Amino acid sequence: MALNQEAATRVADGEKPALPQTTSVSRPSSHAMRPGPAGDIALSTSTSRPTLRSDERRRVWLDAYNAVRRETERRAAPLAPEDQVVQSMPDASPTKWHRAHTTWFFEQFLVTPRLADYRVFDERFAFLFNSYYVAAGPRHARPQRGLITRPTCDEVAAYRAHVDAAVARLLATASAAALDDILPLLELGLNHEQQHQELILTDILHAFAQNPTAPAYDARWTWPVSQRKRDDFVTLAGGVYRIGHAGDGFMYDNEGPAHEVLLQPVRLAANLVTNAEWLEFIADGGYANPTLWLSDGWACVQAEGWTAPGYWRQVDGAWFVMTLGGLRPVDPAAPVCHVSYYEADAFARWAGKHVPSEAEWEVAARTDRLGDAFGLVWQWTRSAYAPYPGYRASADALGEYNGKFMVNQMVLRGSSLATPAGHARATYRNFFYPPHRWQFSGVRLADYGA
Ligand SMILES: [Fe+2]
To answer: Cα(191) to centroid of ligand 1, in Å?
Structure first.
């Protein structure tokens, strides 16, 4: 599941017992998102490296496991039990559910099948905390996750501790040969949990945005520092390029196979669309002009009454926006955030530009000349979320992770301020439905003119 549905990377250096470290891009974070000791962990596929002794592999991966698990708890820590139970819409899940579901993932796919003496914490939890894995059995209805007041937050904490102890035991007792089977699953489980770490923030922000008192998740929260580029555009020559994940390190199956694509000459905006630019769009009647909108997008504008990005509201004639720090004045210099694909497309049309394809985005990102490609807002692309040529989901239950969502959604690239450190990379494919805007989603434009 890319960050999505529940709605969502590597090691490396040869000699050292590489603390998992990523090929991905890290960037300065805002206070709330600043990784604690845990957040700097980047996972690794050192799993396949024969150079590490098995005791080192056990230690490295137990450390990585513990670090990721702590980061989840760190993100949940500012939230009261009352906060952790609420489900503000079907697409958003309660914090408590995220904490339990990520634990179930390890229990279901890693521990239960591989730890001989393991006793399931509570037989009922599989039904409550299975998200969408049909092969793993029946599950509770997603829109009703907010009705699950029991187990309590404390009981979920005990569930997490129970599974943590089992994972530690599994890592300590598995044979060296068994580790080759265990570690890739562990790594997937950790990446999965990191995706839910992002969702913990996006989902609680949505919940808090429904509260007239506009609670702050973290009153000290600020936008991460932008790394804007001085250039206006990154120019790509037309031609054949290679995209997709083909190197070392963790990847989700949807990032491959790597393959060649043909690009037309294009210029990608070096920087993200800002609130200042979006305010011009609003002032020019952008939300009131159907000629700018896709038909489905205009229907959405009408049905939802959109007049501005998500979480924006006017107070005494001035625009404010709900953030992780509570209700704040809209910062003209900050990237526009919480916009849907429909809005991204309408804005691009209004600006005389386009939304880039995901291949264009990836090729440009590899040049390292895109400002804020990572760490502020996910960037919509006009690419439908579809399989790369030759892609096949695996036949087991984990084959449901990504493949079955490959229809009717659009790809977003980059990462956001809520993405855990070490979880992003140039080939990462996030995906959401076109009207969705509760993620930290923004816009980068493309230009095909001379
Ligand atoms: Fe999940």
So the answer is: 10
Task: Provide the terminal-to-terminal Cα distance of the chain, rounded to the nearest Å.
Answer: 39
Calpha distance 375→421 (Å, rounded) = 9
321 CA → ligand 1 middle, Å? 29
Measured in whole angstroms, the distance separating CA 257 from the mean position of its chain's CA atoms is 21
Task: For residues 169 and 118, give the distance between their C-alpha atoms in angstroms, rounded to a whole number.
Answer: 10
Q: 7 Cβ partners below 8 Å, 6+ apart?
A: 1, 91, 92, 93, 199
Helix, strand counts (H, E) of the chain: 11, 12
Cα–Cα distance measured from residue 402 to residue 425, given in angstroms and rounded to the nearest whole number:
17
**Tens of pLDDT, residues 233-265:** 999 999 999 999 998 899 999 999 999 999 999
Q: Write down the pTM of the prediction.
A: 0.91
Q: How many residues does the chain have?
A: 450
Q: Output the CA 133–ligand 1 centroid distance in Å.
A: 9
The tens digit of pLDDT for each residue in 150-189 reads 999 999 999 999 999 999 999 999 999 999 999 999 999 9
416 vs 198: CA distance, rounded Å: 9
117 backbone dihedrals φ, ψ, rounded to 5°: -95, 15
Distance 77 CA to ligand 1 centre (A): 20
